[in-house]
Specification:
Elements (H helix, E strand, L loop, with lengths): L1 H20 L3 E6 L5 E2 L4 E9 L6 E8 L5 E8 L4 E9 L6 E10 L5 E11 L9
Parallel strand pairs: 2-8
Antiparallel strand pairs: 1-3, 3-6, 4-5, 4-7, 7-8
Length: 131
């Protein structure tokens, strides 16, 4: 009886492991969570996207959380099973603002198949001291 229970438990664990391999995995490398960027800094966006099936579209968006203005966006069309994203933009903000990076994958019909977000921010421009 114990062997039968152990076998069933093992099969259940293996089925969950197999299921996890079918998911699309998005790992954001840069920017770092909660990192603060200065005005005019180059903000690097780097991520690894992997799938057990062909990817179709990877979209990148940086949104200003204070007013929902999109500061950067790009779509990458691919038919590979993996992609290494490496993009950058110059921080145009002079005030302290919260930002959200979202990386999504879409299928041929435009349906979102996976999404990963990360929050970071910008600092206020340093005031010049008067002498």
């Amino acid at each position: 009886m114990k062997i039968k229970t152990l076998l069933i438990s093992s099969l259940a664990f293996l089925s969950f492991t197999t299921f996890d391999q079918d998911k699309i995995k998005i790992q954001i490398i840069k920017p770092v969570e909660k990192w603060v960027h200065q005005p005019k800094d180059t903000i690097w966006i780097e991520a690894d996207v992997r799938s057990s099936e062909q990817l179709h579209n990877i979209s990148i968006e940086v949104l200003n959380l204070n007013d929902s203005i999109v500061l950067y966006n790009k779509n990458i069309h691919t038919h590979a099973n993996a992609a290494h994203v490496k993009e950058f933009f110059i921080n145009p903000l002079l005030e302290k603002k919260g930002l959200k990076l979202t990386i999504k994958t879409n299928d041929h019909d435009g349906k979102i198949t996976a999404s990963q977000t990360l929050n970071f921010s910008t600092a206020a421009r340093k005031k010049k001291s008067s002498k």
